């Protein structure tokens, strides 16, 4: 099915780097907007909501691409614990990039807010109106985002470890760049 | 596929150090953006903390305008605003409304006579699902123009632990340092706590922007002008506003006219301490009709955050710096009170029924 078994397919690599950029921006936008009372708060929130929904859609596409194109195997000599950590953290990243935007959407629904993605585009509610549910979902949104940030740090650290120290082809399987 | 030559110990160390530095740099940047490294930055959390420091924490209640009642009714638009705003609420016809009357301050048991200001908050739900939320006060100007000044005012008014009253010297110092408060102080001198919510007018204070069907922008303010004008003096019942409203609604619906004021070019839209000149064009765009009231502890308004930036297509925020600060602070207050409702760990729970004075 895929041409090379040492790299991710092209679509997967494009989705990976695009979403890496978007998700990292979203984490910074999210943390920055709740720490501001200036116009920045309203401006960042107006980016945050449509971008978050875009990430949700991209994550669904990416999951489909992932299920149809198995990734290249990890190096044989990688210790079993590290393999397990790699697989677990990858699935955690998929779960979080689907769950966090869904929780964002659900929390606004529970709070009785219209879920506006622009001045005129409104998404339907996906959760019944309830103040208590809003509070729980709103805290979940923040905690899951912190978990995503920590998982991202571990992921980046591991990628650099593979690329700079083990130099075992794991990083280049995603960059697509192979030094001679 | 270990094709690359092995690294010396020194190079391995340097590469680990490089990875560590990259990760630490990202964490520091994250902390900087999140304000963790700048505790003096004004945030919604600090504003709401200060509201709590001034009034106390009352589990489940709003951190400001805590004492109030829910109301419901509808808005009958006459179509006059359609030339200026494409919002569906301004097309001729009826839009359902859930609202709330309140008095400012964070104490839900404060007597109605404790402040001369009343407030009206409204949520219009359009048939296309978009909403317009607005919170208005019964005064023509706001004391301050910026979130920072609002915060400083709260700090100056914080009760002294020994007297349980604000320190007059600090309050005086604040007003002296803020000459923009003069118009408000002049108004408050003549203001008396009214005996009824129904006889008050309510001002948006902040400016907004109407956007018409062609995309043209019009700076506006709005206010609700009551039809009833028979206000008396409040009685000795500390909750006379609630009693008065229930009695009036038992006799029939209460009405206000929504008056939209169009700015002239150059009128300030970023300064709620300044009224626009009185010759600006006023348009009567429809009638608010309130038909029923419920206690806020169980009513439909309880779990609504009257965030002034929840706006339908056709109404937008102006450059008034109070608007984003209100939006952020109301969201913080809303999260705290709904967290208390959900009885989340770490939130304040209601102790035995507080004594009602
Ligand atoms: C990948 C997707 C997303 C990420 C990584 C993300 C991240 C964040 C973060 C870090 C915060 C700050 C939390 C805090 O510290 O309190 C936040 C807040 C928020 N997010 Fe998201 N979010 C995402 C998607 C969404 C979506 C899809 C929506 C809604 C449609 C949404 C709505 C909000 C709202 C309303 C707030 C709170 C703003 C406030 O209280 O002032 N988010 N988000
Ligand atoms: C930066 C300045 C301001 C801050 C920090 C602030 C803060 C707050 C807070 C925390 C609440 C409680 C929100 C909730 O839990 O739902 C509130 C309620 C309210 N505020 Fe403000 N406020 C500010 C300016 C204004 C202005 C300019 C107006 C007038 C137009 C106003 C009118 C109201 C009204 C009417 C309510 C009651 C809403 C309701 O009944 O639910 N506020 N304010």
TrEMBL record, chain A:
Domain of life according to the entry: Bacteria
GO cellular component: plasma membrane
Cofactor(s) the record lists: heme b
Transmembrane regions: 14-38, 50-68, 88-108, 120-137, 143-164
GO biological process annotation, one example: respiratory electron transport chain
Keywords recorded for this protein, A-Z: Cell membrane, Electron transport, Heme, Iron, Membrane, Metal-binding, Transmembrane, Transmembrane helix, Transport
Stretches assigned to the Cytochrome b561 bacterial/Ni-hydrogenase domain: 11-176
GO terms for MF: electron transfer activity; heme binding; metal ion binding
The name this protein goes by in its record: Cytochrome b
Upper lineage: Bacteria, Pseudomonadati, Pseudomonadota, Gammaproteobacteria, Lysobacterales
TrEMBL record, chain B:
Entries under PROSITE patterns matching the protein: CATALASE_3
Catalase core domain location: 39-357
EC number: 1.11.1.-
GO CC terms of this entry: cytoplasm
InterPro entries: Catalase (IPR018028), Catalase_core (IPR011614), Catalase_sf (IPR020835), Catalase_SrpA-type_pred (IPR024168)
Binding site for heme: 330
Cofactor(s) the protein requires to work: heme
GO biological process, one term: response to hydrogen peroxide
Assigned protein family: Belongs to the catalase family.
Name of this chain's protein: Catalase-related peroxidase
Taxonomic source organism: Dyella psychrodurans
């Amino acid at each position: 099915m895929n041409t090379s078994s040492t790299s991710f397919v092209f679509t997967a690599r494009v989705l990976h780097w695009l979403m890496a950029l978007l998700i990292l921006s979203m984490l910074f936008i999210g943390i920055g907007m709740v720490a501001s009372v200036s116009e920045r708060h309203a401006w960042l929130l107006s980016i945050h909501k449509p971008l978050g929904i875009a990430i949700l859609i991209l994550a669904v596409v990416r999951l489909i691409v992932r299920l149809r194109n198995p990734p290249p195997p990890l190096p044989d000599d990688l210790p079993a614990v590290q393999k397990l950590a790699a697989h677990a953290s990858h699935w955690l990243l998929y779960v979080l990039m689907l769950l966090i935007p869904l929780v964002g959407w659900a929390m606004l629904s529970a709070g009785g807010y219209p879920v506006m993605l622009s001045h005129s585009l409104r998404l339907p509610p996906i959760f019944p109106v309830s103040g208590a549910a809003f509070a729980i979902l709103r805290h979940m949104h923040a905690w899951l985002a912190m978990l995503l940030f920590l998982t991202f740090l571990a992921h980046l650290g591991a990628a650099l470890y593979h690329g700079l120290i083990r130099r075992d082809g794991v990083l280049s399987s995603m960059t697509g760049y192979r030094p001679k | 596929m270990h094709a690359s030559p092995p690294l010396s110990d020194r190079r391995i160390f340097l590469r680990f150090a490089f990875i560590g530095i990259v990760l630490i740099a990202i964490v520091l940047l994250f902390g900087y953006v999140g304000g963790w490294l700048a505790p003096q930055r004004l945030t919604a959390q600090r504003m709401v903390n200060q509201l709590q420091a001034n009034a106390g924490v009352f589990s489940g209640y709003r951190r400001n305008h805590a004492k109030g009642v829910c109301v419901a009714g509808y808005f009958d638009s006459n179509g006059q605003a359609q030339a200026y705003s494409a919002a569906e609420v301004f097309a001729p016809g009826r839009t359902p409304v859930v609202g709330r009357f309140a008095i400012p301050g964070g104490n839900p048991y404060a007597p109605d006579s404790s402040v001369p200001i009343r407030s009206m908050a409204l949520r219009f739900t359009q048939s296309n699902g978009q909403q317009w939320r607005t919170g208005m006060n019964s005064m023509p100007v706001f004391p301050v123009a910026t979130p920072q000044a609002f915060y400083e005012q709260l700090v100056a008014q914080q009760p002294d632990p020994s007297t349980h009253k604000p320190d007059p010297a600090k309050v005086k110092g604040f007003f002296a340092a803020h000459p923009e408060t003069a118009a408000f102080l002049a108004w408050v001198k003549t203001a008396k706590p009214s005996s009824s919510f129904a006889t008050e007018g309510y001002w948006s204070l902040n400016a907004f922007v109407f956007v018409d069907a062609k995309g043209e922008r019009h700076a506006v303010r709005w206010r609700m002008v009551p039809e009833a004008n028979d206000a008396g003096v409040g009685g000795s019942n500390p909750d006379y506003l609630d009693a008065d409203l229930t009695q009036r609604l038992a006799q029939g619906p209460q009405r206000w006219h929504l008056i939209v004021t169009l700015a002239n070019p150059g009128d300030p839209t970023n300064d709620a301490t300044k009224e626009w000149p009185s010759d600006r064009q006023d348009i009567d765009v429809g009638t608010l009709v309130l038909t029923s009231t419920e206690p806020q502890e169980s009513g439909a308004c309880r779990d609504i955050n009257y965030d002034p930036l929840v706006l339908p297509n056709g109404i937008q925020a102006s450059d008034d710096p109070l608007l984003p600060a209100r939006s952020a602070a109301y969201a913080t207050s809303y999260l705290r009170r709904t967290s208390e409702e959900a009885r989340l760990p770490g939130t304040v729970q209601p102790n035995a029924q507080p004594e009602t004075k």
